[in-house]
Amino acid sequence: MALNNIYFFTATIQGWKHLLNKDEYKDIIIDSLKYLSDEELVRVYAFVIMPNHIHLIWEMMGINGKEMPHASFMKFTSHQFLEKLRKENPVLLLDYSVESDSRKHRFWDRDALTIELYSDKVFEQKFDYIHNNPCAGKWNLADEPVNYKYSSAKFYETEIDDFGFLKHYSIWQ
User: Fold this and answer.
1) Tens of pLDDT along 142-152?
2) E strands, 50-106, where?
3) DSSP state for residue 163 in the 8-state scheme
4) pTM (2 d.p.)
């Protein structure tokens, strides 16, 4: 990823496990996005948090120390998942064990999908996909995109940012 480009980003929980079913794990993601936004390291234009993956449309604005913000995001959320599971559900933590010299647990699949949004058409297609994902037959998490709490759909319908980090895509265009 390069600075000042807009990307569609998908990160999946290791093994497609449904770690993000519980709101407390979704809130870890929200907190990380808010921090990165408050520090002006990212702009988040759209997002959805599903039971086992996330989709974002975001822009990398600055380096976080020595790393890109998406790396900080993945590292921070993994650390928070690890701490929460150690305290509250050590048995579930075993599901994320890996045999590696560099770590004992992995929460995110290694190869997140990153697509640069190079045209309005591609942007709109990914934007619609993100907001309709919770309503897809496979998930049935909401009857309408605006009714799914962990998504930016309500922001675009009502202009109310319940998360405190969303930027309207019109500032990009």
Assistant:
1) 999 999 999 99
2) 53-60
3) S
4) 0.94
